[in-house]
Amino acid sequence: MTPDARGSSATPIVEVHHLVKQFRRSDGAVVNAIDDVSFAMRPGEFVVLLGPSGCGKTTLLRAIAGLETPDSGSIRIGATTGFCAAQGIAVPPEKRRISMVFQSYALWPHMTAFANVAYPLQCRRGSRVSRAELGERVRRALGLVGVGDLERSYPGQMSGGQQQRVALARALVSNDELVLFDEPLSNVDAKVREQLRGELSSMQRELGFSALFVTHDQTEAMELADRIAVLDRGRIVQFATPREIYHRPATRYVATFVGAMNELAGTVSAVDGDDVVVRTPAGRVVGRAGGVAVRPGDEVTTMWRPERGRVRGADAAPGPGDAGPTPPVNRWPADVTATRFVGAHTEYRLRIGDTDARVWHPRGDLAATGPATVSVGADDVIVLPAGQADGPGDPAPAGDRPGGPAGQAAPAMAPAS
After folding, report:
1. CA gap 378, 358 in Å, rounded
2. Residues with Cβ within 8 Å of residue 52, at least 6 apart in sequence
3. In this structure, what CATH number is given to the domain that contains residue 169?
């Protein structure tokens, strides 16, 4: 796929309609691993399925790959129906023209890097290539991911990062328009993971393939995604850009799962457009409605990110951020209970009334403990109905499906790419 193909087609590269997949536990309970999921993905887009263990993200990815058979609904890949329960269509994985990178790498241990990458080209029916073209494409793919010098090495002779690069080269060698990623970076150390994220993002934009990526790592999702689908109990609860999910989460579950949040519960006393005034035990809080209508008298939760707050000593003069024509609307007395230096910022742990809170500040120039004043602007406070999607639900079976951790059965899929 060429780089300029991003968004150039009106046909979604992936289109899922009302997909359902249930598993039955040993105690007889039925778990909705995928619960009436619908979404569409544009050509050339990088979409991340994000959520905690058991939310259904891996089951959804495997259903799109053809490794799980849903109970109802449909899946289209480009112009082709890959699955439709109503019509009895279930295209096998090797005929779906997609590639997949597994969490476990799924490299054949008795094959060199060259042979592992070449395998999809040798096995895919109807698209055999000449020996000369095969060698050229394999070496180009290995070079693209930075392991061209390892083509004669076996997986056991490689580091985890090198194995993951070979697995990525195998996924890219077939030039498929859609590549699926099942937590592919979770088995490498933090420094290598950060490097691979940057390389993968650049590579995807350069080559123009569509990427559907599963992770539970919020930072990873934010760095890679054009859009993020946040899952909870088998449902997509928000599907939006990283910026929108972080700054305007649709539910409390999304807000608390993606990044840190401070919370104050209270009752709405007034509403003026998007401006909401809330009575809380700590005092008056002014914020913005989080996309859900609230009315005076409603029980709500007010939420704000630690980096959006400001903290200063109780007797300190107002700082630059407190001056000017639009000072912070929200200001409360607080007590600093602990101070932690964490590199890029200092974290102040506070008590605002009976509520714990955190503020992150780039400088640690406040006393370690003692009285303080906390302030935050109204634009940085989100107001959501109380009890809205409070947290993750019951977990699905291990690895989001029966059979243990994700990727355990990978070798059956890997050769077909």
Report:
1. 17
2. 216, 257, 392
3. 3.40.50.300
Closest among 51, 60, 104 to 254, alpha carbons compared? 51
Read off the pLDDT of residues 157-182 as tens digits, 9 standing for 90 and up: 999 889 999 999 999 999 999 999 99
Residues 294 and 174 both lie in one domain: no
Whether 174 and 280 share a structural domain: no
Q: Report the alpha-carbon distance of residue 358 to residue 367 in Å, rounded.
A: 15
CB 372: neighbour CB atoms within 10 A? Answer: 23
Residue 404 pLDDT greater than 90, yes or no: no
H or E stretch at 245: helix 242-247
Q: Are residues 295 and 239 in the same domain?
A: no
Tell me which amino acid residue 196 is.
L
Q: Check: pTM over 0.70? Answer yes or no.
A: yes
Same domain for 30 and 118, yes or no, is: yes
Q: Indicate if 177 and 286 belong to the same structural domain.
A: no
Find the domain containing 218 and state its range: 3-249+396-416
For residue range 18-28, list pLDDT tens digits in order: 999 999 988 98
Domain count, the chain: 2
We report the CATH number of the domain holding residue 297 as 2.40.50.140
Structure tokens at 151: 């083509």
- Rg from Cα positions in the chain: 25
Phi, psi of 32 (to 5 degrees): -85, 90
Tell the burial category of 399 from Cβ atoms under 10 Å away from its Cβ (0-12, 13-18, 19+): buried
Query: What are the E-state strand segments in 87-198?
Result: 89-90, 99-101, 178-182
